[in-house]
Design a protein that fits this description.
Layout (H helix, E strand, L loop, with lengths): L8 E7 L5 E5 L2 E3 L21 E4 L8 E9 L5 E10 L5 E12 L4 H10 L22 E13 L24 H4 L4
Antiparallel strand pairs: 1-3, 1-5, 2-4, 5-6, 7-8
């Protein structure tokens, strides 16, 4: 949902720790351009399946997906319309996550005018910075839209490694505290 914007596409990439290795699927990609419809004038639907498999023996650095949304500005230039990131859910099953999206802002009026005039708005050179905490405290951003992602998570051999990822609260597995999701035997 990006009120006031249309003809948007998204890029995705994964950020993960050094103990993680992708074994199948694409680590990054780009979707098609989508538009709003008369039925849902504020909703954009990509229906863009992402399939990836990771392998690790350590939960540290659990994968995150970073989403960047782009679209045309007044002059027809592709500009960033939002960045967002979320961890891949820890618990097997179907999960839905809504990512609040944000865009970097210029720090002065002169920079804002110059970026509007030239069509070059502030954006991150590497969107992976969104999933990392270092240096983010000095970045000025503005909220802009939401992206909803549906996950279908499958885990394998977690118990063999000493981790219990089965939810103790079957009614609402997302409410299980993180410390309870990974029990060491």
């Amino acid at each position: 949902q990006f009120p006031g914007y249309d003809d948007l596409y998204c890029k995705f990439c994964f950020v993960y720790g050094p103990d993680w290795v992708p074994t199948a699927g694409l680590e990054e990609g780009i979707s098609q351009i989508t538009s709003t419809s008369e039925v849902a004038p504020t909703t954009l639907v990509w229906n863009f399946p992402i399939d990836i498999t990771f392998k690790s023996t350590n939960p540290s650095g659990w994968p995150q997906i970073v989403v960047s949304v782009y679209g045309p500005d007044f002059f027809g230039n592709d500009v960033v319309r939002g960045y967002g990131a979320v961890h891949v859910p820890f618990v097997p099953g179907r999960h839905t996550r809504t990512l609040p999206m944000f865009v970097p802002e210029s720090t002065s009026r002169l920079q804002r005018f110059t970026s509007w005039f030239t069509g070059r708005r502030p954006e991150f050179t590497d969107p992976r910075v969104v999933a990392q905490g270092e240096g983010r405290e000095v970045t000025r951003v503005r909220s802009q839209g939401f992206v909803t992602i549906s996950f279908n998570v499958v885990t394998k051999d977690m118990k063999k490694l000493g981790y219990d990822v089965s939810p103790s609260d079957v009614q609402n597995p997302s409410m299980v505290p993180l410390a309870e999701r990974f029990h060491r035997y």
